[in-house]
Design a protein that fits this description.
With about 120 residues, the chain is an all-beta fold. Helix content is about 0%, strand content about 55%.
Length: about 120
């Protein structure tokens, strides 16, 4: 199993970014995919997840209405569209999947929200 994130960067408050997580090594469409983040000096925060068929999504309260998770099972990729970004959204964002009772993580992508 391999997960590779991309799309992070520096953005001004109020701006947008779209993160991608390319997956391989498992039947992507059969598994929930999740996004988490870790801000400097803070613990890991779960952000969002999506069912394998895209039929169910969940979000943590502080991103509802601003972030949207989606997936393209033909491309084995999950996305996180982030709008109205705030400085407190600054963090390393990672995707993960639980596959056959094992957890797999990507290396993460840095998102910095600053003017």
């Amino acid at each position: 199993v391999q997960l590779v994130e991309s799309g992070g960067g520096l953005v001004q408050p109020g701006g947008s970014l779209r993160l991608s997580c390319a997956a391989s090594g498992f039947t992507f469409s059969s598994y929930y995919m999740s996004w988490v983040r870790q801000a400097p000096g803070k613990g890991l925060e779960w952000v969002s997840d999506m069912a394998g068929d895209g039929g169910r999504t969940n979000y943590v309260d502080f991103v509802k209405g601003r972030f949207t998770i989606s997936r393209d099972n033909a491309k084995n990729t999950v996305y996180l569209q982030m709008n109205s970004l705030r400085p407190e959204d600054t963090a390393v964002y990672s995707c993960y999947a639980e596959v056959n009772d094992s957890w797999y993580w990507g290396q993460g992508t840095q998102v910095t929200v600053s003017s």
